[in-house]
Batch of 2 targets.
Target 1
Amino acid sequence: MENLQTTQTPTEQSLEAENAQLRRRVDDLETELVEVQARANAVVAEWQERAYWLDRWHLDLNALMRKPGASEFRAGLRAVRSVARFFKRLRRSLSRA
Amino acid sequence: VSSVSAVIPVKDGDRYLEELLDALAREGVEEVLVIDSGSQDRSLQIARAWHVELLQIDPGEFSHGRTRNLGAERTSGELICFLTQDATPCPGWLAAYREAFTLAENVGVAYGPHLARPDTSPMIARELSEFFASFSPDGAPGVQRAGDPTFLSNVNACYARACWEEIRFRDMPYSEDQAFGEDVLAAGWSKVYSPGAAVLHAHDYPPVEFMRRYFDEYRGLREAKGHVEPFALAQSAGHVRRAVGADRRWMADQGMSGAEAARWTALSTVHHAGRKVFSALGSRADSLPAPVRKGLSLERRDDAGAGTSAAASSNGTPKGAPAALPPTTPVQRKLSREVYEVAADVWANGPAPLLEPAPGAADRERLRLAMVIPPFNRGSGGHNTLLQIFTRLERRGHICSIWLADYYGYRNAVWPAVLRREIRDYFAPFEGPVYKGFDRWQGADVVIATGWDTVHATLRLDQCHARAYVVNDHEPEFFASSAEHSLSAETYSYGMHCIAASPWLRDLLIDRYAASAEAFQLGVDHDVYRPRAVERRRDTVIYYARYVTPRRGVPIGLMALAELKRRRPDVRIVLFGTDTIPDASFDYEHLGVLSPEQLSVLYSEATVGLCLSLTNFSLMPKEMLACGLPCVELAGISAESIFGADGGPLELAPLDSNRLAGSMQRLLESEDEWQRRSRDGVEFVASHTWDQATDEVEAGLRRALREREEQAALATQRGPR
């Protein structure tokens, strides 16, 4: 090995160093890719675990909310909820008083 | 300005004919031809009084396509308008048609809306209005080209003569306009919907006549376009309910009074329900008996078939000429693609290129692994093997994902989260994501095919460093000569590194396909399959009689058991592994499909197991041995590659029912022999674990990556050619 090194020209030595540096960079990138993929898989798997009943019942909430009347229905629910909350708060404040 | 001819087929059409001819004169149509096919009313007198050309034909000669071709031949205008006898052009009709032919260079035909007459029923009026509005939401003329709606109606249409000459109406008894609508767009012409070219027209008939007319129309649609009207009770009831609701809203918009609206609501219900039933019957007319067909048809047609049959009879087959072909049955497209289209994709484009190998990738601690699996059911042995191993690879830190390749669409109705849960419930607690199809493909260090019907899909996946093929069995043997046989045999020839589920299978892949291959041993779940604390019987033979799996050789197994029963009538025989109860020439007991826990108890209780495989050795005999149950298998196939030439703890017998019976009899009658086999079996399979199998498969996956590196290095040494 030593013999080889001693016979290498400066250009060859610099090329080898550059190669080693590039290999390390590729290794780092591969490691990063593995980490990113692991995180992405975990997120998708967790979502699939949570979405089981939606998928079981073929419910695509995005598609459902795009249907005519869906936004209005949701707005109606929010209105009902806000009224209910108002009365809840009112009852609480009255009971405190 | 193009010259214009109008052609009007007539039969007993005196009710509106005068009004129609008056309107044509008003619009400035130069040439009018009335083709009468046997009118008994004043139609002929009216035509003569208006001094239009009159052509009388025999009623039997009439056919919607043929008669209109005749009309076009007998006229000379550059534009030919076809109208029915009850369609009255509205003012501006002809000007609108003339304008339509200027909207694009290659307009072959134009058509206009049908407006309801004042006495038209609300059901028809609403439908006409909504139907034609759908072609032009903004009320402007629209040019329709290939891919657009093909609708065309000869109630009110105008043809460029050049276009008609090129295409002509098909010689069919009905729906010639729909066929022309398809043909004209397919031939590269365009057609125009012109809202201004309106006619007053509505088909209002008594309910029964209306339904019979629908029977004829949908029969014609089936013959022209292959359309089969769907019919299911719940959906049809929903359809009728929605249609009646729409009619009621339309009536309300028209300011109809309550009593009148109630009367029309009742009629609307009859109308829509009757139409649904008769249109469904019409499009299935060929399945009805001839007298029923004739009775339901307004035109009293009782012929069985498609327009082509009418064409054949009209052309006439001279005596002595070869027999005419039977009528064809048009069949609608039902699939988005052919079942094995992915194989055609591989043949056309080859496998997707692999990524350049990353030096040292094979030795990295964590690999990105993507396993492509075929559809599965609970109890699938092959999937259990794959998932036992893949979940262990996942636990070792590899980044794992599962991808379902479903060529046949078996699991179309199952969404990914449900698939994932099924995998976890049926096989093993896989933690990673499960995908259906490859829309979200993200690449992998190694993509793993796991069955012949995953290989072509796997080959088309890009962004991979290597591909491997976990081969559970020699699948071409599952099929007689067939597309599946050829396609599955082909899967071994794409250079994927094979990891085979036995040394026998590995050697076969190398010898027959020159594949790069290594083997792994199927593992046993020793937590489940172990001798249980149940009393061992001395008279019981159990047999895995899965008739639906031909490679299990069930008829041979049953013959062997019949022979055993002849020799030992006292023996108790229990069949399991299938819900179907096979007929046999001997009495036996049946247990159906059992859970692993139940199987373990059965194996711990029985005296002898019989489990045959005509291809690769399966896991079941190992599980029997693990429970201390001696097992009889076939010699000379694959078992020797695992257990040695003498079968080791297994009792091997050739493919001969007498010899198989002899092997079982020996184990039943020789206590020493039974004890030795039972003890040796438990010992032998003790080392056959899923962890060991995972070690072997992991080594195979790393080998696939190394092979890629070696191939790339070899290519570099050779240099560019």
Target 2
Amino acid sequence: MTTSPAPVVKTREPRGARQRAQQRESAVRHQRRTVTLAAAAIVVALALLVGVRLLTPTQPSVGAGPVPADTQAAVASVPSSTFEAIGAGSANGLPTPIRAAAVRRGPADLPLVTYVGAEYCPFCAGERWPLVVALSRLGQFSGLQMSHSASDDVYPNTPTFSFVGATYASPYLEFSTVELQSNKRSGNAYSPLQTPTAEQQQLLRLYDVPPYVAANSAGAIPFVDLADQYMISGASYDIGVLRGQTVDSIANSLADPTSPTARAILGSANTITAALCSATGGNPSEVCGQPSIKALQAQLASAPVPSSR
Amino acid sequence: MTLNRWSALLAVLGLAISVYLTVVHYAQGQVPLACASGGVVNCELVTSSAESGVGPVPVALLGAIWFGMYLGLVLRGTAGPYRLAWAATGLAFVFYLVYAELFLIGALCLWCTAVHVVVIALFLLAIAQSSTDVAEAVA
């Protein structure tokens, strides 16, 4: 008996299963390729952002040095009609009443306005704009320098002026300033710049405290004392409107009463001017007699002095 | 671990960080922000900047809502393309926030960066999930 060899059975994968496996492999390859491409695109986009940031100068258009004459003129000679069109504009509110029995006076026996701030401080940078505009209606600045807030604080590099080295002359007011620190880092703080006088320190102790400011804002800058009749702590408007601008562009936008920048700065300047007029007894009349200033003065007069109760 | 499990895990991680940052925001100093605050890395600067909120709503809260929604989509087994669309909105917001940190605020927040990495990872997982769904549909 002969035995025939067992038949060789060739096991063949069904065609459908093989196709499905190939499709799966293809799908996996496609998936990996898609995910890799997406990841690469994201990395490239983020690298581009970082690259552009590194190549962009930190302070592209804000700088130091004297304020150009045309810029200062744009700030100091805003037409009355523009002030009138804006009124309080988008100012956050009015200066806080103090109404001390006597108007604080400076060495020349004129009402004394005192500013305490710092060059790094973005809110000080913002507040200098309406302060300079308002004071320029009653006098004249010289020696103003261009400056900017710190590059590593909120609202970095906010363009502004510095009061360091500037002088103010007016037949109606005196202006005392101190910039406590510069906008340059020194370790974990900013380098000291000017030392407050005894009177400036006294004003901080008297009025940059409750009930004039919230307890958690005591001692905050910017602080402005308007001859002991009114005070300001913090910026008078949303300084976000200054973002991305230069000293020049801000100064030029003041001519347009519809621009958000003008509404913020000139509106705040009007509220400060109204408070100044209260200290100067309504002088000069060409400024203090304007309808918008009179209206704001009436509002200021009816605002209560904060009470500690 | 499957794509879904990775997605769920990352969504929970992102949710936890966002909730922490939201609590820090509303606690106003009562809950410490555990992060450096000086130089380029400055969480306090970033989380207190104007860009840290959309109107009155803190970005951290928006993040918590986004991660919560994403986790819901994963747990419900929502199809990949829908998840991908939701992830794409998150990715677009991440790009805006990175832009804001670099160009508007000038500082980076490590917690925020961690959240950004999680969103990017979820976006890539959503792409993978989406192409898996398509492949399964073809098969």
